[in-house]
What we know:
By secondary structure, the protein is mainly alpha-helical. About 80% of the residues lie in helices and about 0% in strands. The chain contains 9 helices and 2 strands. The chain has helices at about 5-10, 15-40, 50-70, 85-95, 100-115, 125-145, 150-185, 185-195, 205-245; strands at about 70, 80. The protein has a two-stranded antiparallel ribbon. β1 and β2 (about 80) form a beta hairpin.
Amino acid sequence: xxxxxxxxxxxxxxxxxxxxxxxxxxxxxxxxxxxxxxxxxxxxxxxxxxxxxxxxxxxxxxxxxxxxxxxxxxxxxxxxxxxxxxxxxxxxxxxxxxxxxxxxxxxxxxxxxxxxxxxxxxxxxxxxxxxxxxxxxxxxxxxxxxxxxxxxxxxxxxxxxxxxxxxxxxxxxxxxxxxxxxxxxxxxxxxxxxxxxxxxxxxxxxxxxxxxxxxxxxxxxxxxxxxxxxxxxxxxxxxxxxxxxx
Length: 246
């Protein structure tokens, strides 16, 4: 672990503990839902097996690498960027269930921190994890009710809608004020970065509506389309690999 990351941990212990509390809460939600789904379907398969854990590790590594490649968008300040790290997370959640999705989402954050430390005092990492889970969990839960292409499309639409709603509100109510607090930067200065790009951005509310909401719609749409296009072929390979490893 780098000295820079250790320094940030030391400076933001309380925030990191709150972050871990969010992780634990979402893991419990995913576990309860998946247990219910298995009981409903009559499945006796364990939620986590050795083979699943190995696949979770692989998808986490892919997601962590994809998280490095962030692309700015023209309608938002440059601290808002888009990446495709949710693609392997959603594929894992579809293939192995909501618990696997949350685990991949969390492990990718840990791996990314080890590779790239943090430039946002962990606020960006909390945002990525929480907003990512608000997409992954609903999508995988809906898909798990009836595994079909149509259900996958519905799940992705539901996930994108929830992620957009939650991400927008979470940024306005918590993430932006917390970022301003940790960096000693007035919220007005952050809003000003948005105003420089879009004159209609004049407040936190307009910032999240005109920048954060479309960013989440764009990300959810791209990840959803790619997942729908490649999941069927990948699922055959995943199942074959799981069977071969028995």
